[in-house]
From TrEMBL:
This is Fatty acid binding protein.
Length: 134
């Protein structure tokens, strides 16, 4: 079993902005640019069924999300989108299934000894954020 806990440095995005745009939310262009260019640090802490994600952007802002596997929760993304999210653990992955308006989608956090790949999918569009383990 791969270790989830740790800090991860964002290395690159793949189709991430296209994914965000596909959600149909009004997001200012400067926010999209910030999301695409940031070299954030992502912290993960898992204690039993309780999980905490903390994102530290290169601009100095911090965003935290806490949840418990199997219990739906409301979260607000960095872009200000509110989601009803259900988390589950699946081997070396944490899967968050979210409903936002008429759409639903998944974020799959796939951990390895080298890092983390976060895949975002909704409505047939997939984006990725690739992190290295620190």
């Amino acid at each position: 079993m791969v270790q989830f806990n740790g800090k991860y440095q964002l290395e690159r995005n793949e189709n991430f902005i296209e994914f965000i745009k596909s959600l149909g939310q009004e997001i200012p262009p400067e926010m999209l640019e910030k999301l695409n260019k940031t070299k954030s640090i992502f912290e993960v802490s898992v204690n039993g069924d309780d999980v905490k994600f903390i994102s530290h952007s290169s601009s100095g802002s911090t965003h935290a999300t806490s949840f418990t596997f199997g219990k739906q929760f409301t979260e607000e993304t960095l872009a200000g989108i509110k989601l009803q999210t259900t988390p589950k653990k699946d081997g070396d992955k944490i899967v968050l299934t979210a409903n936002f308006g008429p759409k639903s989608g998944d974020r799959i956090y796939e951990f390895s000894d080298d890092g983390l790949v976060v895949s975002f999918s909704a409505g047939g569009v997939v984006g990725k954020r690739i992190y290295k383990r620190l």
